[in-house]
Amino acid sequence: MSYDKVKQAENISIGTKQTTKMVELGKASEVFVAEDADPRMTAKIVNLCKKLGVQVTYVESMKQLGKACGIEVGAATAAIVNE
């Protein structure tokens, strides 16, 4: 399951602003998007990823994505960051 990738990643960016920033900087290798997140929040990042060739992986819920990121709240998006 893709949550393992998030848990094992050394560097992750959590949240749409941080994720967008990392994609724009070319530092994101993969972006995770929660299926239950508001599409108005995630559409921009998904389109940006498509444009820049960054892999997008959909995960079931914001709650589980947040948990995989090690935070107590839900996360709409997260990115694995290559430094």
CATH T-level fold name = 60s Ribosomal Protein L30, Chain: A
Corresponding CATH superfamily: Ribosomal protein L30/S12
Q: How many beta-strand segments?
A: 4
Tell me the distance between the termini: 24 Å
Oligomeric state of this protein: single chain
Strand order of the largest sheet: 1-4-2-3
**Major sheet: size, sense and barrel closure?**
4 strands, mixed
CATH architecture tag? 2-Layer Sandwich
DSSP helical segment count? 4
**Rounded Rg:** 11 Å
CATH class: Alpha Beta
* Low-pLDDT residue intervals, each spanning 5 or more residues: none
Count of distinct structural domains = 1
Please describe what this structure looks like.
This protein is an alpha+beta fold and 83 residues long. It has one domain: Ribosomal protein L30/S12 (60s Ribosomal Protein L30, Chain: A). It is 45% helix and 24% strand. The protein is built from four helices and four strands. Strands 1-4-2-3 form a four-stranded mixed beta sheet, sandwiched between helices. β2, α3 and β3 form a beta-alpha-beta unit. The mean pLDDT is 94.
